[in-house]
Amino acid sequence: MTLPARVQSWPVPAGAWQAQLRSLVFGQGTAYSMQTVDGLDLPPVVDGDVERAATDGLFGGVETTAKRDLVFAMLVHPDTFGGLAKAVLMQALKVAFAESSDDLGLTLNHPDLGPLLFVGRPRRLSFQVDRTFPFKAQEGVLALFSALDPLMYSGTLQDVTIPFGTAGTNAGVVANAAALPGVPSTMVRIVQNGGFVSAAASDGGWVTTVATDLAAGATLTRDTGTVHVSGASGKLVTSGASTNQGVRQPTLTNLLPGTSYTFTCWVNLTTAGGSIRLLARDVTNAVVASSAAVVNTTGSWQQLSVTLVTGATGPVQVMVTVRDEGTAVARTFYTTEVRGDLSSAVQAWASPLMGVTAGAVGGGGGAAGFSQIASGGTAVSKPVSRIKALAGPVTGPLYLDRVESNESIILNYNMANGDVLELDHDLHSVLLNGATNRADTLDAATSWWSLAPGTNTIHYRTGGPGAGSQAEVLYRDAWW
Fold first, then answer.
1. What confidence tens digit (pLDDT) does each residue in 368-412 have?
2. How far is Cα 230 from Cα 15, in angstroms, rounded to an integer?
3. Are 328 and 371 in a shared domain?
4. pLDDT at 348
C-alpha cells in the first residue's frame, strides 16, 4: 500500500507559472500557454444550517469546506515551426487529464507563493476543433482538476526523524493540561500518584528517607478519611526527633530544558506548631525553588505553589518535597494532589540542546526522543508518521506525543525487529509493514494530533526497551 498522496513525492516544474500533472508540464514556456487559473481563492463552504421551527432564520451548524476546483484556460500551439502537430499536443493533454481512481498530485510553480501541491483528480478537458480556419495555429482549452483535499500544500515534502530517547510509561512526558474538576491528579504525568489514589501510599516513588532537604523519621500511610478532591491523601506523622521531616518523590525525569514549570500541592495540618513547605531540587540535591508561603494553621486544606525554570541543557531532572519545617515535635499533616504543569500552555525551548543535532528538513533541536517541528503554513497539516524498529524488538506501549496540546497516539503493540508502523493522522489508520491493518492496537486514550502553524514539539517514547528505534513524521506546510 502506497503513502497518501499528500505525503508522496511529486515533481515540481522549474519555471514560474508552470504546472505538472502526471508527466505533462504545461504553462509558461511550453506548447500549452496558460491564460487564466481559477480556483486559487477560497473554495466554497458547505454549511450545516438548519431551519428554525415556526420562526425566521436558521440555526448555524458545523461548517466544512468542499473540494477546490482548479480550472486552467490554455492556448495550445506548436512551440516552433516544424514542432509537434497540434493533434499530438492535444492527445498528450488528454492523457494527462484522463480519469483516475487514485488521488494524484498536481504541482504549480507560483511566482510569489513558491511550489504548490494540490491533491485530487482530473475531471474534465474541453476543447473544440475549429475547421472554419483549418490552418489556425492555436486551439483554446479548458482543463478541470478537482482538488478533493481543498488545502494548498507546499511542493516541498518535509521528513523529520526522531530517534529513540527514553523508555518507561511516563518517561519524558510533560504535563500541559489544565486541571479538571474531579479528575485525580494521578492523571498528571510529571508527578506519579500525586493524589495517593493507588493502594499503597509509596506507589509512584514516594519516600520519607533522608536527603539533603529531608530528615528521616516520618511515617507515610494512605488515608481516605481526610481528603480533598482525589479521594485520598498521604498521611505524614513526624517522629519529633528533628525538624524538616516529610515526603518526597525522586526523580522526575526528562522535563523540557529552559522551560518554566509550576508545582503545586494541597496540605492539611492537624497539629499546631507545624510549618509545611513545598520544595523542588535538582539531581545534585540542590534546592532550586521553595514555596514563599507555608501552611502553619490547622484544620483546613491549603494550597502551596512553587515555580522553577529548568536549565538550558538536558536531560532535566527534578525532585519534589513536602516537609514540616516547624519545631521538632511529633505532629500529623496530610498532603495530596501534588502535581506539576507547564507554567503556560505553550513554551519553546530556550535554546537547542548541546550535542544534539536537528532532525531532517523541518526538524528543530531537541533531546533524544524530542523534535521541534516548524509548520510554516497558515492551516493545520495532518501528517503521516512512522515508527520503525531498526535495531531489534521494541517493547510497547508506543507513544507519539504532541507536547503543546497534550495529545498522544498510543499503540499497545510490541514490535519485532524490522517492523514499520505507519500512522495516517487524517484517516486515523495504522498499517503494519505496508500491508496489515493494525488499528486494533490503538489505545482508547489515543488523541490524534495535527501540526499547527508554528512550533510543534513531538515526543517519541516507549513503555519498554526500544534502543535503536525511531519515529518519522512526513508532512507539508498547508494554506487555505
1. 688 889 999 999 999 999 999 999 999 999 999 998 888 999 999
2. 64
3. no
4. 30
Cβ–Cβ under 8 Å, residues 428 and 443: no
Q: What percent of the chain has pLDDT over 90?
A: 62
Q: How far is CA 464 from the centre of its chain?
A: 21
For residue 355, the model assigns a pLDDT of: 26
Does some domain include residue 300? Answer: yes
For 270, the domain range is: 185-342
Under DSSP, the state recorded for 89 is H
Same structural domain, 147 and 194: no
Strands 24-27 and 18-21: antiparallel
Strand ranges, E, within 330-435:
332-342, 370-375, 384-388, 398-402, 407-411, 420-424, 429-432
* Amino acid, res. 24: L
Q: What is the pLDDT of residues 319-361, one digit of tens each?
A: 888 999 999 999 999 999 988 877 753 333 222 222 222 333 2
Rounded CA-CA distance 266/465 in Å is: 36
Which pTM does this prediction carry? 0.65
Q: Nearest 5°: CA angle at 376, between 372 and 381?
A: 80
Q: Give 44's DSSP letter.
A: P
Q: Is residue 179 one of the residues assigned to a domain?
A: no
Rounded to whole angstroms, how far apart are CA atoms 97 and 211? 74
Determine the distance from the C-alpha atom of residue 430 to the mean position of all C-alpha atoms in its chain, rounded to a whole number.
17
Give the span between the Cα atoms of 173 and 461, in whole angstroms: 9
Residue type, 234: G
Q: Do residues 164 and 216 share a domain?
A: no
Same domain assignment for residues 165 and 191? no
Q: Do 291 and 391 reside in the same domain of the chain?
A: no
Residue 407: in which H helix or E strand, if any?
strand 407-411
Which of 242, 241, 291 is closest to 265 using CA atoms?
Answer: 291
